[in-house]
Task: inverse folding
């Protein structure tokens, strides 16, 4: 099948490359000329493991192309996906749908035969109705269907998530559109992937509800971690104890400095606003948003406490800046709250992250960036682990201790074992453990 992907950002690029790898002919369209030029040269605008090779292979085999001009591609497409950004709107927290509606207008002007317009971007309930209205207004004679097909891609594991998903959700009541979507995802039938057809509004809400539930799960275990510290329990054992209950499950029960990234912060906020306006406020999600925001600031206080309440004139090494490993995404990363707070208290901050330092330099003032983890530690009064990159999990602890001025570790991801760290002579602080 022929597919156009409007937007060559995270969702559009990963989805487009994976559809091409299924054997479809895909064209990714983006207004950013510099981004398209880089993609044509094989340079990825984001860090996602395996994406560069996947893109290169499908470009080489003629199934994947990049352009700033949508006309030829949309004319010939069976399905046109909208995969543009929907950031939080300033002032009210709603999803900003400016790019979605602009894409709808462009598609309306360019489509010819029956076209399935698929919203892949994360959008509030009712967005599909508005997209349909926009297209009908511009092209009353057009033959088309608007479908909701939310993405469930984890940064750092997006290719695997697309090719081996838990489920595929498709929101449409149009039978021809269902046939097109079945054909697009037919390669996944071999894996017996559940293909769930729903109404369009239900599909849109599934995405928000799923992300809100996972955000609540993270926030829950973070609050349990605080309780563990007060009563002398171990949050990792608590998480294992409840996670073995298959009604709960073990995923997203890792205590830490709070969630961040491109999805959970904006999606929980958008769901809160949607629910409030619909007259059905979701207080659990409202509380989750507030608790998570406060937690990031609280982590700076934890570092201060570990250093005796005063960091003025001290050098603090930060390992990990991205909101999670295997990505360079700094959006709503806990580091963006923790580091400025430490600097405001008079600390000098030196930081290292394997992939996100280019992004971090534009967002963090007053930080010295190191070339590697051990260079980051040299002469520091303490080290703080904020992101649990694999390369931080097995550091040479003898070398770590020798590099630090004071053997103090604040581990906000529970990478190491308290007993081992004490035995090695470290002053070791972690999350929710004695």
Result:
């Amino acid at each position: 099948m022929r597919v156009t992907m409007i937007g060559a950002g995270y969702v559009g690029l990963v989805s487009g490359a994976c559809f091409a790898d299924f054997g479809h002919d895909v064209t990714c369209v983006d207004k950013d000329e510099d981004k398209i030029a880089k993609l044509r040269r094989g340079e990825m605008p984001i860090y996602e493991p395996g994406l560069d090779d996947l893109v290169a292979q499908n470009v080489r085999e003629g199934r994947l192309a990049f352009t700033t001009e949508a006309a030829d591609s949309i004319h010939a497409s069976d399905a046109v996906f909208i995969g543009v950004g929907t950031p939080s709107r300033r002032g009210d927290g709603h999803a900003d749908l400016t790019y979605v509606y602009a894409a709808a207008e462009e598609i309306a002007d360019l489509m010819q035969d029956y076209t399935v317009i698929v919203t892949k971007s994360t959008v509030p309930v009712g967005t599909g109705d508005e997209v349909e209205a926009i297209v009908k207004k511009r092209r009353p004679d057009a033959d088309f269907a608007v479908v909701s097909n939310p993405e469930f891609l984890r940064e750092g594991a997006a290719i695997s998530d697309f090719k081996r998903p838990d489920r595929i959700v498709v929101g449409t009541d149009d039978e021809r559109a269902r046939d097109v979507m079945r054909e697009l995802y037919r390669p996944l039938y071999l894996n017996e992937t559940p293909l769930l057809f729903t109404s369009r509004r239900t599909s849109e809400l599934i995405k928000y509800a799923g992300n809100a539930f996972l955000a609540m799960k993270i926030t829950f275990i973070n609050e349990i971690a605080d309780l563990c510290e007060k009563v002398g329990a171990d949050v990792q054992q608590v998480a294992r104890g409840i996670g073995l209950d298959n009604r709960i499950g073990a995923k997203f029960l890792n205590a830490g400095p709070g969630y961040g990234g491109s999805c959970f912060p904006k999606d929980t906020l958008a769901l809160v606003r949607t629910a409030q306006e619909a007259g059905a406020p979701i207080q659990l999600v409202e509380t989750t948003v507030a608790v998570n925001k406060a937690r990031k600031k609280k982590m700076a206080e934890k570092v201060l406490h570990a250093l005796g309440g005063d960091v003025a004139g001290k050098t603090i090494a930060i390992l990990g800046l991205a909101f999670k490993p295997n990505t360079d995404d700094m959006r709503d990363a806990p580091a963006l709250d923790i580091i400025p707070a430490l600097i405001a208290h008079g600390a000098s901050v030196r930081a290292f992250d394997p992939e996100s330092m280019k992004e971090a330099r534009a967002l963090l003032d007053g930080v010295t960036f190191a070339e590697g983890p051990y260079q980051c530690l040299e002469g520091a009064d303490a080290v703080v682990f904020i992101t649990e990159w694999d390369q931080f999990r097995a550091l040479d602890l003898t070398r770590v201790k020798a590099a630090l001025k004071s053997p103090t570790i604040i581990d906000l991801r529970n990478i190491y074992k308290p007993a081992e760290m004490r035995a090695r002579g470290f002053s070791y602080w972690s999350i929710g453990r004695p």
User: Anything to note?
Assistant: The mean pLDDT is 96. The domain at 2-197 is CATH 3.40.50.720 (Rossmann fold).
